[in-house]
Structure formats: structure tokens, C-alpha cells
Amino acid sequence: MVKGSIAASAPVLAFSGSGFSFYDDGGNSYWRVVTENAGKICAGNVRNAMTYLLNATVEALQVSFKLCKVPDSNIDVGLWIVNAFDSMSMGNYPFSSNYLTDDPTVFLPANPIAAACNVPSINSPLDALIHAVSVFSNASKQEKCFDIPRTSELDNDRFSGPLWTFQWCSEMLPEEFYFTMDGVKDMFFTYNKPFSIDTIVNRCKELYKGLRTDVEKVHRLYGTPAEFLGKLENVVFTNGLLDPWSSGSVLHSTQDMQERGIYVMNISTGAHHVDLMFSNPGDSDEIRSVRRKQMEIIKFWTNKI
Fold first, then answer.
1. N or C: which end of the chain has fewer CB within 10 A?
2. φ/ψ of residue 85, rounded to 5
């Protein structure tokens, strides 16, 4: 029934079990891609500002970030900012996009990470963060104040929403706000360190009564990465290298994989599944080339039916 597939931005290596290494560093490689997108200067500004933020009073943070109410904690504000950088990295397209704004009339700028890091002036340590978060959270230019998620809320797990949280708890489908940040290899602060499966399992029990979190389900069903990649045929793995999910994807192919019709196409100018987006005047030549190659491969598959 299925002849082949395009696996765009597919983090199939970001699971637990024998042969999987994604969680050796707690999934920190995800946040390192976000940091690399920002560049050294911006990352340094963000890292310094995060240190200042974590030591400020919550009342001062409400004023600085125009929050609708006093936040419960500095961590809530910090994670709200991390989420903005996370979302802009996934949506770091070379064209303006409304993919991650939740409103079809509101667009992020092209290369939003660059826009977020282009701070007009820094008069206070928080200016870099205020500017960056506004590029994402106030893309409409209409927000008077911001309501931010609370880390104490269990019902929607802050930024992921109930769908992705359930996928994490039931399938261990990777969810970035459980990954480790350390404030050294990434530009943020220490969070979820050390990475703890037990903490995740207990949180899932709180969220979903009676649900058993099977942390090695994917490994049990499909084997090690080498085993399941060794069985595949006719799959195109495409990765926008600006997309932090590329940290858990298949980035290289062997001669044996190619002989079984497994292709790997990495797009240096692309973000989250950019190859599946509609054509856009802002597309890079690289993006257009990958789409043409995909079409050629699909035609080859269908002609063999």
C-alpha cells in the first residue's frame, strides 16, 4: 500500500533504548542547534541576560516584559523566552511565514532568529531578551501585555499542548521542554539537569491517570537505529539544518542505504520540513533543488509499480 515516503524533519533517532544516543546528554543537542542559529554574539547576549533575569524580582520582570500579571517565578519568564527562540528556530525560513503564529494573518519575518538577534540598542541586560521575545510573541504588533504559561500547570504542559504531551507520555515521542539545558553548551540556563526518565514517568502519571509510560516502546518495536535503518527501503530523509529537530534525525546515509533507496538530503538554508511547504518567492535555490529531486524519486517509485 505504501511504495515510499518523504520523512521531512523526522527525529527518528530521538528515542530511548539500546543503540540510541540522543539522551546521552539529555537531548541538549536540540538546544545547541537553537544556540548555533543565534550565533556567538547573540548567544552571548542571551546567556548573560538569562543570568540577570533569574536574579531579578518577579515584579521587575512583569514591568520589563509587559506581562499581564506578576509571574509565579523567574523560570516561567525564562521558559517563555526559550519557547520564543525554539519556535523561531523551527520557523527559521528564508521567507516570511505564518506557520507558527497561530493566526493566518500574522507573519514572522524572514529569518526570524536574525531579526530577534538584531537588537537596536542594549541599555539594560534584559534588552536583548525583550527585543527577541517581542519578535515572536508580538509579531502582530497588537499585544498590550502577555499572559505566559505557568510551570505549575499540569493540564497543558506549558508550551506543547495536550496532543504533544500525550504523545510524549504514551509513545515517548520527543518533546523539547523535557530536554536538558545547561546554560553552557546552550545559551539559556540550567533546566532538566540531570535528565531523568523517572521524573518524566512520574509527571506523566500525574497528567494521565492510569497511563503507563513505556520509555523503550520504539526500541522494542523497531530495534536499534542500525536495525530499523537496515530494514528500510524507499525513504527520503530531509533535514533543514536550522531546525533543532535535525539533532535527532538521520543526517548521513551509507552506500548500503542508498542501494535500498534511502536518501538523505540536508538543507543548510532550511528549517522545519521546509521542503513540504508551498513554493515561495523567498525559497533558496537549495530548497528548490531538493523538491525537484524528491519529485524525480517519487516518479521513479510510481513508475516501478
1. N
2. -65, -40
C-alpha pair distances (Å), 282 with each of 94, 109, 273: 6, 11, 15
Place of cell 518577579: 58
> Pairing relation of β-strands 190-191 and 181-182?
antiparallel
Element (H, E) at 271: none
Model pTM above 0.90: yes
10-64 residue pLDDT tens: 999 999 999 999 999 999 999 999 999 999 999 999 999 999 999 999 999 999 9
Residue among 238, 240, 227 at smallest CA distance from 268:
240
- Long-range contacts of residues 49-57, Cβ cutoff 8 Å, at least 24 apart: 49/125, 49/126, 49/127, 49/128, 49/129, 50/78, 50/81, 50/129, 50/183, 50/187, 50/188, 50/189, 51/183, 51/189, 52/125, 52/126, 53/77, 53/78, 53/81, 53/126, 53/129, 54/78, 54/189, 56/126
Distance CA 176, CA 19 (A): 20
Residue 91 near residue 99 (C-beta atoms within 8 A): yes
